[in-house]
Design brief:
Distance between the termini: 65 Å
Number of domains: 2
Shape: elongated
Strand content: 5-15%
Largest sheet: 8 strands, parallel, barrel
CATH superfamily of the largest domain: Aldolase class I
CATH class of the largest domain: Alpha Beta
Radius of gyration: 23 Å
CATH topology of the largest domain: TIM Barrel
Structural class: alpha/beta
Strand order of the largest sheet: 1-2-3-4-5-6-7-8
Bound molecules: phosphoenolpyruvate, manganese (II) ion
Helix content: 40-55%
CATH architecture of the largest domain: Alpha-Beta Barrel
Order of helices and strands: EHEHEHEHEHEHEHHEHHHH
Length: about 350
């Protein structure tokens, strides 16, 4: 078999349940997904590292046995699952799994990644490295390098978002600038997006997928379940195979030529990311303003306090000089933001 992960004009789509929950759920999902020629690989969680104890942690070996049986029915559909320990790698090999991924709670740990890399050496398994939960590009790069150094060349990176103090309405903050920088440093490494774990809500999967395609990602990994609401893990973010098919129909693939030469494209992508970040920060600022408004009302204080406004403006003028922005421009911008802030407090 050739490489499973490569860069092509057509992004690869990986889909499947967060976790395998029963033989029936697995075979039903596999039957649906195998009928859609756009699905390149099926994902299924067999071991689930849960942030807090007490949740469903996956069925382990029996689930692998079901995958092996299902694979006989759909020999053209490769299967992947998450590995978090060297023993998991051995079991995946034993049951003929095609690819594995290293999850965000594992890629954060260099010793564990090192042990997995040794277990993967010579295994023939293709490997995906999810970004670590912390927004640290070096840890992500380090995990990728450890896997590469074990001689694995069928490799991809998966962006699933980061845990930050404020995730801005996402389950995991996308921080698009980090995967964009990873792609700049490793242009030959396929980069996939996992909109399910970034968004955490099924309503966000389509727009996040489109964003990833607009940023020229090489593929998507999407959680898919026959009855999402009853899923034992990540029920809010999974979509049905039918919903997945409709969503894939709606996604627009932008051709590279539409957007000009590589450098221009990359710089425009960076501008888009920065613009979105600015809006998100503004939304955060307005929320704080509204909270302040409530406190002012409770204490019978006026909404507009000239002294405070003077301070804000001086602070911004000082900051403008420090970062080398035109003072008049920053004054106008600050007045606009302050005006909206007062409006929100009313
Ligand atoms: C998963 O893919 O189901 C998963 C647990 O992923 P992550 O490591 O991104 O949280
Ligand atoms: Mn999941």
């Amino acid at each position: 078999m050739g490489k499973l992960f490569s860069i092509s004009d057509k992004p690869m789509v990986i889909a499947g349940p967060c976790s395998i929950e029963s033989e029936q759920q697995l075979s039903e999902t596999a039957a649906d997904l195998s009928r859609d020629s756009r699905i390149a690989m099926m994902r299924c969680g067999v071991w689930k590292p849960r942030t807090r104890p007490g949740g469903f942690e996956g069925l382990g070996e029996p689930a692998l046995r079901w995958i092996a049986a299902v694979k006989r029915l759909y020999p053209a559909l490769p299967f992947c699952c998450e590995v978090a320990r060297p023993e998991h790698v051995e079991l995946c090999q034993q049951y003929g799994i095609d690819a594995v991924w290293i999850g965000a709670r594992t890629s954060v740990n260099p010793f564990l990644v090192g042990e997995l890399a040794e277990a993967l050496r010579g295994s023939g398994l293709a490997v995906m490295v999810k970004n670590p939960i912390t927004p640290d590009i070096s840890l992500w790069l380090g995990a990728i390098e450890r896997i590469e150094q074990a001689g694995i060349d069928d490799l991809a990176a998966v962006h699933r978002g980061f845990s930050t103090y404020n995730n801005f309405g996402y389950r995991n903050n996308p921080l698009w600038e980090i995967p964009i920088e990873l792609k700049r440093r490793l242009p030959e490494l396929p980069l996939l997006c996992d909109p399910s774990h970034i968004g955490g809500r099924r309503e966000l999967v389509a727009s996040l997928s489109q964003m990833a395609l607009d940023l020229h990602y090489d593929g998507l990994m999407i959680e898919c379940h026959p009855d999402p609401d009853s899923a034992l893990t990540d029920s809010q973010q999974q979509i049905t195979p039918a919903e997945l098919a409709t969503m894939l129909d709606s996604l627009k693939l932008r051709s590279h030529s539409e957007t000009g030469p590589g450098d221009l494209r990359r710089m425009r992508e960076q501008l888009d990311v920065i613009d979105t970040e600015m809006l998100r920060l503004l939304a955060q600022r307005m929320k704080i303003s509204r909270d302040i408004g409530a406190i002012k009302r409770a204490h019978n204080m006026p909404i507009f306090q000239p002294q405070r406004w003077q301070q804000v403006l001086e602070h911004q003028m000082q900051a403008a000089r420090e970062v080398g922005l035109d003072e008049e421009f920053v004054r106008e911008l600050t007045e606009k933001i302050h005006g909206e802030s007062l409006r929100q407090q009313e």
